[in-house]
C-alpha cells in the first residue's frame, strides 16, 4: 500500500482537528462549570456562545425559525413514515440506533440475518441464496475447466521452467478450491466479529442521557410555561424541575434541540437542521453499505474463480 | 505478456476481501467513535447551569461538539478506506484487466469478422455471376439449353464472331447466321486493344481501367447489341429504351472479368481467413493471456493478409510475368517471403528441430476458444464498478 505525503498530511490534519476540539476539556468544562478556573479562553468562548444563543431568540429570527421548522418537520415526518413500519417499533432512525445495530433494516448479515420484520436481507434471503449458489456452480465449472487446461499444459510442456510454472498454477488452483468452499464461513466470521464489537460498545453507552423540558417546545408561551414550572419546583423544594424529560443517546440530543427549535429559537433550528442532515447522511451511508455488502457477498465465488484463472493461466 | 508470480499475487480475491472486511468493520469503528463522542457529550451535559435563556450555554457546546463529532464519523469512513488503500474500483488491477479484456474482445470481433468474409463473399459472387449470366441469357444449370457456365467460359473466345445462334442464345430459334456486331469507333478500338495488352502484361489494374473507359466510350457512342435473327447472345436485361448496349464480345469480356475478379476475391478471402486463424494461433503461442493473444493476433493479421493478397493478385499471371522477367512478382520470391514470415512468427510453436508441433497449435487454439468467452465475461463483470462511499 502506498501512502504518499499528501495522504499523510491529510491524516495528520484531521487528527489535529480532533485533538484541538477534544483535548482542551478543561477549557470546555471551564465554560460550563462554575467551580472550575475561568481561563481567559474559556471566558471568551462562553461570551461568544451566549451572544450566538441570544440572537436566536429575537422576534425577527422567530419568523425565520418558523420557516426552517416547517422544512425540518417535513423531513422528520418523512423519515418517521418510511422507517416506522420496518424498525420494530423504533419509529425514527437516529444515528446511534443505526450505528449500534438497533435497527434491523440496516443489518447486512445475509448469512445469519436478524429476525426483524422489514429487513431487506430477510426479504431477499432466498434470492441472495440462489444467486450465491448460481455463482458457486459457475465458479465450480470454471475450476473444472481450469484443472483440465493446467493438466494438459503440464503434460505437454517440455521446458523445465514452464513445468514449474504449471505446477505452481496447480497449487494456486487447490488454494482456490479451498477458498471457494470456505469463503462463506469467512464472511460469517467477519459479520460475527463486527456484531460482537458493536454490541459491547452499545452496551457501554446505554446510560448516557440528556434532558430537556418539553414545555420549551410550546410555541409562543413555551418560555412562560417553563418559567412557571421552574418557579413551582423551587417553591416546593424540588431538585428536578417539572416537565424535564430524560432522553438517551444521540437521538435524545436531537430531540432536545428539536424541542428548542419548536419554541422559536433560530439557532436551535439551525443546529437541529444540521443534526438532521447528518442523520440522513448516516442513513444513506448505511443503506449503501447494506447493498454493497450484499453485492460483494453474491459475487464472492465469481471473484475467486476469476482470481484463480488470472493467477494460474 | 508473461507476468511474474509476484505481479499476479495482488489479485482480485485479496482486494475483494479487503473491501468486504472494511465495508463491514466500518460499523465497529463508527461505534467506537460514537461511544467516545457520547461520553464526551454526557460529561459536558452533566455540568449544568441554571439560567433563564432558552438554550443554555452548555447546550451550545453540546451542539458544537455533537455536530463536529458526527462530521468526523461521516468523514472517518473515507479516511479508513484511504488508509487501507481501497480505491474507486473493486480491485486495484481491475481497471487494467478490464481494459485488457476489452481490447481482446475488440480484436476478437474484428478477427472473427475476417474469418467469416469468405462465406459472405461467395454469396455476393454468386449473386453477381447469376445476374450477369441472366443478362447474357445463361443460367447456371443450363435450362435454356445453352450449356453450363463452365462450358460457356471455356468457349468465351469462340463466341464473338462465331455462328453462335444455336449454341448460345436465350430463346433463340434455329441457328442463324453468324452474329454481327456494330463496328467500334477508332477510340473504342484503341481502348480495347490497350485492354488486351494490359491483360497480357498482367497489369490487371490498368486492364480494368481501360475496360471501364471503353465501356463508357461505347455507352456514349450508343453501340447496339449484336446478334442476328434467330441467334446470337441476347441481352435480355439490358435492352431498355435509351440504355446503351454493348456487343456480345464486350459483354462476354465483362462477364469473364467478373468471374475472374470474383474468383480472385474469393481466394483472397479464404486465404485471409486462414491467415487470421494462423495469426490467432501465433498470438497465443507468443503470450500466455488470451486477451493479449487476440491483440497480437490482430496485429499479425494485417501483414499476413497483405502478403496473401499480393500473392493472389499476381499469382494469376505469374506465368505471363516469367516472360517479362519482373522479379517482384516472381513466384519464388513471394513464396520465400511468406515462408520466412511464417517461420519467424511461429518460432514459439516449434519443436527443437524446427518443425511445427501440431499439438501445441491445437492446444493453443482450443484454449483460446475456451478462454475467450470467459475473458469476455470477466471483462464485463469487472467493468461494473462498485464505488466506495462518496463524500456526503
Give a structural overview.
The complex is a heterodimer of chains A (313) and B (392). A two-stranded antiparallel sheet of chain A has the order 1-2. Chain A has helices at residues 5-22, 25-32, 40-55, 59-83, 95-99, 120-123, 125-156, 160-204, 222-235, 249-262, 266-298, 300-312, and strands spanning 209-213, 244-248. Chain A is built from 12 helices and 2 strands, in the order H-H-H-H-H-H-H-H-E-H-E-H-H-H. In chain A, helix 8 packs antiparallel against helix 12. Helices cover 73% and strands 3% of the residues of chain A. By secondary structure, chain A is mainly α. Chain B has 14 helices and no strands. The model of chain B is unreliable at 1-9, 49-54, 88-98, 138-181, 223-245, 317-324 and 384-392 (pLDDT under 50). The chains are: A mainly alpha (313), B mainly alpha (392). At the A-B interface, helix 1, helix 2, helix 3, helix 5 and helix 7 of A face helix 1, helix 2, helix 3 and helix 14 of B.
Keywords:
heterodimer, A: 313 residues, mainly alpha, two-stranded antiparallel sheet, 2 strands, B: 392 residues, 0% strand, elongated, disordered N terminus, disordered C terminus
Q: Average pLDDT of chain A, to the nearest integer?
A: 77
Total helix count of chain B?
Answer: 14
Structural class of chain A: mainly alpha
By oligomeric state, this entry counts as heterodimer
Summarize the biggest pleated sheet of chain B: none
Q: What's the total count of β strands of chain B?
A: 0
Contiguous uncertain segments of 5+ residues of chain A: 24-37
Compute the gyration radius of chain B: what is it?
Answer: 38 Å
Largest interface: A-B, 95 and 78 residues
Low-confidence stretches of chain B: 1-9, 49-54, 88-98, 138-181, 223-245, 317-324, 384-392
Strand order of the largest sheet of chain A: 1-2
- Overall pLDDT of chain B, averaged? 60
Quickly count the helices of chain A. 12
| CA-CA gap between termini of chain A | 26 Å
Amino acid at each position: 500500500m502506498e501512502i504518499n505525503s499528501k495522504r499523510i498530511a491529510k491524516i495528520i490534519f484531521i487528527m489535529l482537528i480532533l485533538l484541538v476540539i477534544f483535548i482542551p476539556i478543561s477549557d470546555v468544562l471551564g465554560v460550563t462549570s462554575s467551580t472550575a478556573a475561568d481561563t481567559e479562553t474559556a471566558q471568551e468562548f462562553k461570551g461568544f456562545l451566549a451572544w450566538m444563543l441570544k440572537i436566536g431568540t429575537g422576534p425577527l429570527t422567530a419568523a425565520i425559525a418558523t420557516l426552517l421548522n416547517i422544512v425540518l418537520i417535513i423531513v422528520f415526518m418523512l423519515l418517521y413514515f418510511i422507517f416506522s413500519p420496518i424498525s420494530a417499533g423504533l419509529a425514527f432512525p437516529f444515528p446511534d440506533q443505526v450505528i449500534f445495530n438497533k435497527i434491523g433494516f440496516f443489518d447486512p448479515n445475509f448469512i445469519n440475518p436478524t429476525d426483524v420484520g422489514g429487513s431487506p436481507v430477510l426479504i431477499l434471503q432466498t434470492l441472495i441464496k440462489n444467486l450465491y449458489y448460481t455463482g458457486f456452480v459457475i465458479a465450480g465449472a470454471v475450476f473444472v475447466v481450469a484443472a483440465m487446461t493446467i493438466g494438459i499444459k503440464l503434460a505437454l510442456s517440455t521446458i523445465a521452467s514452464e513445468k514449474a510454472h504449471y505446477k505452481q498454477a496447480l497449487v494456486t488452483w487447490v488454494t482456490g478450491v479451498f477458498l471457494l468452499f470456505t469463503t462463506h464461513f469467512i464472511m460469517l466470521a467477519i459479520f460475527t466479529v463486527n456484531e460482537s464489537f458493536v454490541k459491547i460498545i452499545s452496551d457501554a453507552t446505554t446510560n448516557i442521557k440528556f434532558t430537556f423540558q418539553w414545555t420549551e417546545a410550546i410555541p409562543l408561551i413555551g418560555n412562560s410555561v417553563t418559567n412557571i414550572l421552574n418557579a413551582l419546583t423551587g417553591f416546593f423544594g424540588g431538585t428536578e424541575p417539572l416537565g424535564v424529560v430524560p432522553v438517551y443517546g444521540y437521538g435524545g440530543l436531537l430531540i432536545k434541540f428539536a424541542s428548542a427549535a419548536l419554541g422559536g429559537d433560530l439557532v436551535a433550528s439551525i443546529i437541529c437542521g444540521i443534526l438532521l442532515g447528518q442523520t440522513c447522511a448516516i442513513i444513506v451511508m448505511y443503506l449503501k453499505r447494506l447493498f454493497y455488502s450484499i453485492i460483494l457477498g453474491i459475487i464472492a465465488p465469481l471473484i475467486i474463480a476469476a482470481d484463480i484463472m488470472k493467477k494460474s493461466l | 505478456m508473461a507476468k511474474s508470480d509476484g505481479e499476479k499475487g495482488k489479485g482480485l480475491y485479496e482486494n475483494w476481501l479487503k473491501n468486504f472486511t472494511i465495508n463491514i468493520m466500518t460499523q465497529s469503528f463508527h461505534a467506537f467513535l460514537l461511544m467516545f463522542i457520547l461520553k464526551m457529550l454526557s460529561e459536558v451535559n452533566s455540568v449544568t447551569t441554571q439560567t433563564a435563556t432558552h438554550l443554555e450555554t452548555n447546550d451550545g457546546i453540546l451542539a458544537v461538539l455533537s455536530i463536529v463529532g458526527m462530521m468526523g464519523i461521516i468523514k472517518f469512513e473515507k479516511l479508513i478506506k484511504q488508509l487501507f488503500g481501497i480505491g474507486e474500483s473493486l480491485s486495484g488491477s481491475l481497471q487494467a484487466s478490464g481494459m485488457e479484456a476489452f481490447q481482446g474482445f475488440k480484436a476478437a470481433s474484428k478477427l472473427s469478422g475476417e474469418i467469416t468474409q469468405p462465406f459472405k463473399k461467395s454469396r455476393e459472387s454468386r449473386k453477381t455471376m447469376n445476374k450477369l449470366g441472366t443478362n447474357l441469357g445463361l443460367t447456371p444449370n443450363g435450362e435454356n439449353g445453352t450449356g453450363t457456365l463452365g462450358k460457356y467460359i471455356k468457349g468465351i473466345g469462340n463466341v464473338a464472331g462465331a455462328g453462335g445462334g444455336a449454341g448460345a442464345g436465350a430463346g433463340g430459334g434455329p441457328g442463324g447466321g453468324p452474329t454481327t456486331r456494330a463496328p467500334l469507333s477508332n477510340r473504342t478500338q484503341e481502348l480495347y486493344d490497350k485492354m488486351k495488352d494490359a491483360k497480357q502484361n498482367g497489369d490487371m489494374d490498368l486492364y480494368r481501367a481501360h475496360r471501364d473507359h471503353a465501356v463508357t466510350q461505347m455507352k456514349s457512342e450508343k453501340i447496339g447489341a449484336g446478334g442476328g435473327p434467330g441467334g446470337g447472345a441476347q441481352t435480355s436485361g439490358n435492352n431498355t429504351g435509351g440504355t446503351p448496349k454493348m456487343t456480345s464480345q464486350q459483354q462476354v469480356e465483362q462477364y469473364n472479368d467478373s468471374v475472374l475478379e470474383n474468383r480472385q476475391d474469393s481466394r483472397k478471402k479464404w486465404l485471409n481467413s486462414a491467415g487470421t486463424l494462423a495469426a490467432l494461433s501465433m498470438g497465443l503461442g507468443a503470450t500466455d493471456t488470451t486477451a493479449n493473444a487476440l491483440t497480437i493476433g490482430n496485429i499479425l493479421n494485417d501483414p499476413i493478409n497483405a502478403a496473401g493478397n499480393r500473392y493472389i493478385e499476381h499469382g494469376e499471371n505469374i506465368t505471363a510475368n516469367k516472360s517479362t522477367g519482373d522479379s517482384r512478382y516472381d513466384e519464388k520470391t513471394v513464396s520465400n517471403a511468406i515462408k520466412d514470415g511464417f517461420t519467424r512468427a511461429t518460432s514459439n510453436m516449434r519443436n527443437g528441430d524446427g518443425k511445427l508441433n501440431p499439438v501445441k497449435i491445437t492446444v493453443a487454439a482450443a484454449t483460446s476458444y475456451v478462454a475467450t468467452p470467459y475473458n469476455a465475461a470477466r471483462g464485463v463483470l469487472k467493468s461494473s464498478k462498485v464505488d466506495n462511499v462518496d463524500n456526503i
